[in-house]
Write a structure and sequence with these properties.
By secondary structure, the chain is mainly α. Helix content is about 70%, strand content about 5%. A two-stranded antiparallel ribbon has the order 1-2. Helix 4 crosses helix 6. The longest helix has about 35 residues. The chain is globular, with a radius of gyration of 20 Å.
Length: about 170
């Protein structure tokens, strides 16, 4: 798979996650969703071509951002974070305890890395005049029937987000 195709695939995956149900991420960020369980981004009267171009640009910016630290580096950093007073105790503990600590550190770093990428994408969307809006239960239910990454799903979100009345009424 060439680099361009890999970037497109990664961007599509991030777009799918960014554009729709971000419930757990928002709860972790303590974001006020005004009662909405999920959200998307929109810009009044934006056409599908422009919507797609901006979302592609912002998602690519997030995917290619230099926030990622690879797993081996994270593992080394995790083991370095063990203090001298902890090390003797670890010798007598099961090796899985150390592995658990490394895995936990890796997962936390990946969460932080993912959060940084989403923050970059969000900032880019705002720079391009997009606004967040909440999805109603009915809109969320309909969205769930559309395959992730599909043109139909993107068109549905674009139609909602291009509607000035929806942006006004459901803006977050």
């Amino acid at each position: 798979m060439n680099a361009s195709r890999t970037t497109m695939l990664a961007a599509a995956v991030l777009l799918a996650g960014c554009a729709a149900t971000a419930q757990s991420r928002n709860m972790n960020r303590n974001t006020n969703l005004h009662g909405y369980a999920s959200y998307s981004w929109g810009k009044a009267n934006v056409n599908f071509k422009d919507y797609t171009a901006v979302v592609w640009e912002c998602t690519t910016r997030g995917v290619l951002s230099p926030t990622h630290v690879d797993a081996p580096t994270n593992a080394i950093n995790a083991t370095r974070s063990i203090t001298v007073t902890q090390q003797p105790a670890l010798i007598t503990e099961a090796p899985l305890t150390v592995l658990d600590a490394v895995v936990d550190t890796e997962l936390e770093m990946r969460r932080e890395d993912n959060q940084q990428r989403h923050d970059i994408i969000d900032a880019c969307l705002v720079e391009n005049g997009f606004h967040r809006f909440g999805l109603t239960q009915e809109q969320t239910a309909h969205l769930a029937t559309l395959p992730h990454g599909s043109v139909e799903r993107r068109q549905y979100l674009q139609e909602l987000g291009a509607n000035p009345e929806i942006l006004r009424r459901q803006g977050i």
